[in-house]
């Protein structure tokens, strides 16, 4: 498989990836950041998988059930046919709250003829670090490992358990199921019970998706991206993950392989702002509570990222026994970037707080805590905005005065002023307004490079950077300001490669970047649209959408030449930016129709 041709299923507790031929090649239980049960994605020999094997006469097609996270893989040879409906159960409990057990269900739906298949069931617990043994018991199949850690998982099925484990041929003449669970079940599942779980999960997702508004254009893409962002949210604490995987490389054979199963304040806040705009308020409320819980002390500086259960220490380790995706080692778990200083996170977080208070000022449960956080953020920004940092791209070398970080320091103060007005707290306004103006003047003076006629990556630098395109989105500069227009043009000239964008082209800690960072192309398209090049922007947007995988999903990066997806998958960043672009295009069309009808 040359591309990341996978679908994601999940239940806001964990997730699994299913290939377009129905193989489960990645699954962690009981939670997103737990060790893997299947990791063929990271080592096709050792990693382990759960595959459905049919002969070459079968055609295999895959799609999502519309407006849900239920993945349907259809097998047919013209005469014999069946479908697998893969999902992780999630639905409302009678007493309130949600049922989201650490389980994956594979429901086999009989369609026609006498379809035959074999199962390759090969769990490799704890990242396949030690031997996993599998035993057939009376009611289930159990797999366990006694390596450095003891771990188990349980497989329940309506099919012959010995035939499953031995990989013998199975003929389907009725619906059947597999349930892979982290825990042993109290009550034995049945086909009927599993079908009920499927229907309840379907209703949950249809209800959730019904809150997403209808737009004039790109409805399917907006809906699929919104569901993907929801699948990357962790219900228990409100955290939002950057992606569901670890160590998928930004470029095949290179070492830019990181664990993304954590909550970056920046990525999560951007995602939450978009999900909130789509009307999914509960996700935003839970995330704000996550932030409130993280900052118990008034002078505690925010880390750039946390574990999904609010862990503050994310020690990075290398799994040397796994060869990596397409041989791209090392495989890493944990992420040392948690120690970095990045001054932009305060502005991004303040933007979300301001957004929520603007829309729901009469219905914010933790308003007093949010005001406390607002004052704390202003205090930290006032004290540190003149300092250099690692920037949005997490350079591991020396600190610099990154333009994006400075702009977001300005955003932090700008939004704090707005929050103060919403909450009628005007005592500090004069002081804050002076600070806001000081930061703004500093950026105009030091980030603008007249030689390249653009705002550059960092102060006194000649290098361009796609992140400065967000100056306009955050309200720092008007879209039609000549300085912004010429920045967009300069970035197009310098960073665009066959319609895809580099983040930057100057060397970083690992040499020159050699793939396109997906979100940057969305940012660029959005900027083009804002400066008035709407036709060109729409054309480039449609082209970029065509680079998604067969299910409309995007990873972190795209290869410039082959257009294959690279990097961790699916990526929250990419999908939130897709939604922003699509909504802007759709809104513009709506406004034009309204104006037309008024003429």
Q: How does this model look, in words?
A:
With 599 residues, the chain is of the alpha+beta class. It has 15 helices and 28 strands. The chain has two domains: 6-209, Beta-galactosidase, Chain A, domain 5 (Distorted Sandwich), CATH 2.70.98; 211-593, Alpha/alpha barrel (Glycosyltransferase). The model has no long low-confidence stretch (mean pLDDT 93). The strands form nine sheets. An eight-stranded antiparallel beta sheet has the order 6-7-8-11-17-15-14-13. A four-stranded antiparallel beta sheet has the order 1-2-3-4. The chain has a three-stranded antiparallel beta sheet with strand order 5-12-16. It is 35% helix and 18% strand. Strand 13 and strand 14 form a beta hairpin. Residues 217-582 form the GH15-like domain. It holds the Pfam family TREH_N. InterPro entries: 6-hairpin_glycosidase_sf (IPR008928), 6hp_glycosidase-like_sf (IPR012341), GH15-like (IPR011613), Trehalase-like_N (IPR045582). This is Glycoside hydrolase family 15 protein. One of its GO terms (biological process) is carbohydrate metabolic process.
């Amino acid at each position: 498989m040359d591309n990341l041709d996978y679908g994601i299923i999940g239940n806001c507790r964990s997730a699994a990836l299913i290939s377009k031929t129905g193989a489960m090649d990645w699954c962690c239980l009981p939670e997103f950041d737990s060790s893997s049960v299947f990791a063929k994605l990271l080592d096709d020999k050792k990693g382990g998988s759960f595959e459905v094997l049919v002969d070459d006469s079968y055609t295999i097609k895959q799609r999502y059930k519309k407006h849900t996270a239920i993945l349907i893989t259809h097998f047919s040879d013209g005469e014999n046919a069946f479908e697998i409906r893969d999902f992780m159960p999630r639905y409302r409990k009678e007493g309130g709250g949600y049922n989201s057990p650490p389980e994956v269900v594979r429901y086999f739906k009989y369609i026609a003829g006498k379809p035959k298949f074999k199962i390759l069931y090969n769990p490799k617990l704890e990242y396949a670090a030690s031997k996993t043994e599998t035993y057939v018991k009376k009611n289930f199949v159990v797999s366990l490992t006694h390596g450095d850690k003891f771990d188990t998982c349980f497989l329940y099925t309506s099919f012959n358990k010995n035939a499953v484990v031995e990989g013998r041929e199975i003929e389907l003449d009725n619906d059947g199921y597999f349930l892979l669970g982290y825990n042993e079940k109290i009550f034995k599942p049945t086909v009927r019970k599993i079908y009920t779980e499927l229907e309840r999960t379907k209703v949950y997702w249809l209800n959730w998706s019904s809150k997403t508004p209808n737009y004039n254009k790109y409805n399917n893409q907006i809906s699929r991206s919104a569901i993907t962002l929801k699948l990357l949210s962790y219900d228990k604490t409100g955290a939002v993950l950057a992606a569901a995987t670890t160590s998928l490389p930004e470029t095949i054979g290179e070492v830019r392989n990181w664990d993304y199963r954590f909550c970056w304040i920046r990525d999560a806040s951007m995602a939450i702002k978009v999900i909130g705009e789509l009307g999914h308020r509960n996700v935003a409320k839970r995330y704000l509570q996550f932030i409130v819980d993280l900052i118990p002390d008034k002078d505690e500086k925010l880390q750039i990222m946390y574990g999904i259960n609010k862990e503050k220490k994310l020690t990075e380790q290398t799994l040397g026994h796994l060869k990596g995706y397409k041989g791209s080692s090392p495989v890493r778990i944990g992420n040392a970037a948690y120690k970095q200083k990045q001054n932009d996170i305060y502005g991004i977080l303040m933007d979300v707080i301001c957004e929520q208070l603007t829309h729901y000022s009469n219905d914010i449960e933790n308003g007093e805590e949010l005001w406390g956080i607002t004052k704390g953020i202003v205090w930290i920004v006032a004290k540190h905005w003149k300092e250099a940092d690692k920037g949005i791209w997490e350079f591991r070398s020396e600190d610099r005065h990154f333009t994006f970080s400075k702009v977001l320091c300005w955003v932090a103060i700008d939004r704090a002023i707005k929050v103060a007005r919403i909450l009628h707290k005007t005592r500090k306004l004069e002081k804050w307004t002076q600070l806001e103006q000081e930061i703004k003047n500093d950026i105009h003076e030091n980030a603008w490079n007249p030689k390249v006629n653009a705002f550059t990556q960092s102060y006194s630098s000649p290098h361009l950077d796609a992140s400065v395109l967000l100056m306009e989105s955050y309200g720092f500069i008007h879209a039609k300001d000549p300085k912004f227009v010429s920045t967009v043009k300069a970035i197009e000239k310098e960073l665009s490669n066959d319609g895809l964008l580099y983040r930057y082209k100057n060397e970083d800690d690992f040499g020159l970047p050699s793939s396109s960072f997906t979100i940057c192309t969305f940012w660029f398209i959005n900027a083009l649209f804002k400066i008035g090049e709407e036709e060109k922007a729409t054309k480039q947007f449609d082209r970029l959408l065509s680079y998604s995988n067969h299910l409309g999903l995007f990873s972190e990066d795209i290869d410039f030449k082959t257009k294959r997806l690279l990097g961790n998958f699916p990526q929250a960043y990419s999908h939130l930016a897709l939604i922003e672009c699509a909504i802007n295009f759709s809104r513009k069309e709506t406004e034009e129709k309204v104006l037309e009808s008024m003429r």
